[in-house]
Write a structure and sequence with these properties.
This protein is an all-alpha fold. It is built from 8 helices and no strands.
C-alpha cells in the first residue's frame, strides 16, 4: 500500500546507518584508530537495534488487520525511529525550508503519505463501526500536526528525555480525538519518574 512508503523509508534509513558503521568498521581494520573503533563499537549495536525496531514495526503494521492497532503501531514506530535519528528528524521537521526545494518537496510528500496512512486506518475504523463517522482527512492532518509538534519541541533542546516516553500520553490524546472508546484506550500510565517533556530553551 502507498501508505506504507513512509515506514519503508524509515526502515531503509536505518539500514543505511547500519551499513555506514559496518563500512567504517571494515576500513578501520587497516587504520587501527582506537578512538574511532570505540565509537564504532558503541554506535553499531545501537543502529542495529533501531533497524530491528523499525523493521519489526513495519512488518507488524503490514500484518495487522485492526485499524486502530495499525495506527498505534505507526505512531510508535515513527517516534522510535526519529528518537534514534535526530539529524534526520531535524531535516524532516525543522530544517525543511533551508534544505532546498527538492528535499522540501520530498519531505512534504513524506508528511502527506503519513497523513494518508493514518486517514486510511481511520476510514477503516469508521467502516467497521469502531469509531463514529468523522472527517478522517482533517483528523489525520491534525494527528500529524500533533506528532510534528511533539517531535519539534523534542528537537529544540540539547539534552532531551526519551522521545518514546511521550508515546502513552500522545497515543491516548490522538485516539480520543478520533472517538475511540475509553475501554479501548485503557489506562494511560503516568510518566516515568524523572520524565519531564522538554520545552524549548527560552
Amino acid at each position: 500500500a502507498d501508505g506504507l512508503d513512509g515506514l519503508e523509508f524509515m526502515t531503509m534509513a536505518e539500514a543505511g546507518e547500519v551499513g555506514h558503521w559496518q563500512i567504517l568498521d571494515t576500513m578501520n581494520q587497516k587504520a587501527r584508530n582506537q578512538e574511532l573503533q570505540q565509537v564504532i563499537d558503541w554506535a553499531t549495536p545501537i543502529q542495529e537495534r533501531h533497524l530491528d525496531e523499525a523493521l519489526r514495526g513495519s512488518l507488524k503494521l503490514a500484518a495487522e488487520e485492526d485499524p486502530i492497532a495499525q495506527a498505534e503501531i505507526a505512531i510508535r514506530t515513527v517516534l522510535a525511529t526519529f528518537a534514534g535519528h535526530r539529524t534526520m528528524a531535524r531535516l524532516l521537521f525543522l530544517d525543511v525550508i533551508g534544505a532546498g526545494r527538492v528535499f522540501q518537496a520530498e519531505a512534504n510528500d513524506l508528511h502527506e503519505r503519513f497523513a494518508l496512512l493514518i486517514q486510511g486506518y481511520l476510514d477503516h475504523a469508521v467502516a467497521d463501526g469502531v469509531i463514529p463517522p468523522t472527517d478522517t482527512r482533517v483528523t489525520s492532518i491534525a494527528w500529524f500536526g500533533a506528532i510534528n509538534e511533539v517531535v519539534g519541541r523534542w528537537l529544540q533542546v540539547d539534552q532531551p528525555g526519551r522521545l518514546e516516553d511521550a508515546y502513552p500520553a500522545l497515543r491516548a490524546a490522538l485516539l480520543r480525538s478520533a472517538g475511540v472508546p475509553e475501554t479501548r484506550i485503557g489506562d494511560v500510565p503516568p510518566p516515568q519518574e524523572g520524565w519531564d517533556f522538554p520545552e524549548p530553551m527560552r
